[in-house]
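P.,

For your records, the input lines for the assembly:
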Amino acid sequence: MADTATRQENYNHLVLNTCVLAGRIMIESGSEMSRVNDTIMRIARNAGLKDAQVYATLTGIIMSGGVKEVGAEVGSIDKRAFDMEKVAKVNELSRAYAAKKIDIYEFRDDLVHIDDLVATFPLWLQTLGAGLVSGTLVVVFQNNLPDFWITFIVGMFGWAVYYFLNIYIQIRFLSEFLAAVVVSALALISVKAGLGVRADDIIIGGMMPLVPGIPLTNAVRDALSGNLISGPARGIEALISACALGFGVAIALHFF
Amino acid sequence: MSLFFIKCICVYFSGIGFGLIVNLPHRALNVAGITATLSWLVYYGIINTWGGLGAANFFGGLTIGLVSVVIAHLKKMPSILFDVPGLVPLVPGGQAYNTIKNFALGDYQVAFNYLSEVVWIAGSIALGFIVAELINKIRIKIKYVSRGWDK
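Structure tokens returned:
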């Protein structure tokens, strides 16, 4: 009898742990909050915790099981990046769990090893993507065909700088600032060297991969769904990013 | 006219490029490009016929919201995967840059003109998203009501 009770308690702990882990991965990868709450509650309900409650913010998750024996669990979130494939993967696992294709042990195991399960694009492909965004948007925004290739290259350099600084400096705003300086400086130098035509257009294009589009979208969505903690917090995140980019451009314009 | 087609292709590739940066799943990349192209075509059509900046961006945002929900349903993936790349060609990059530049150069009057344009565009896109979300909520409600409230 006591053995069954202990086993049930262990099981409930495991469910709670899995829920917090899933939520943490989703917030760290840049999902919106309503989806995080929805996924966590769905897992808990499918696992049999009917009265579970969750309180998720941008920097941490608090979750209680609603059962007497298991208390609550806290998960803290220190860094946030953008990795849409992880969001999709957690979503997929949660669907598979709801359909009873995997059990809670497999689910938790997959979540713990999500870094091995989810492939990220290699650096050269990411850099190529940044170049694509930069080059094409110069044509779309400014009707400027001749500057396509130079913007492509400047955008690639800007993203590479941002990527490597993100590894060595843990502050995202600082790496955004320095990447903006590099993009603007390269644009101004390339025009002086006769490679580009209009420096302004090249800077606009080269900045586009760094512009905080996802935080801005998420800020609006979170605020609209009634999450008054995470919505404004994300808005501030986007605002600081935009300011960092702006200061970077301003400094480069001043010195070059 | 040929510039228009070049721009269409460019918008498609900008969606894919942004997908590569934010690590979209492989099978979502092509769709993300198509979402971006659709929303930009709506934006382009409106801004060159009857609408101003506000209307064009509003309907662009609305298109992204609606299309991404439909595709998310078909592909069984979260809808955020498709509306982030779709947003890229609508972002007021040029105006934002001109704001910063004119602030740096000391032309505050010009800078504030561009700044108000940025705020106006961003607000319109956000409003488009809101309305798309609202339409989606109503659609789900209608589905449940027609099924007789059983969830």
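Two observations worth noting. Chain B touches chain A through 46 residues (CB under 8 Å). The radius of gyration of chain B is 18 Å.

Regards
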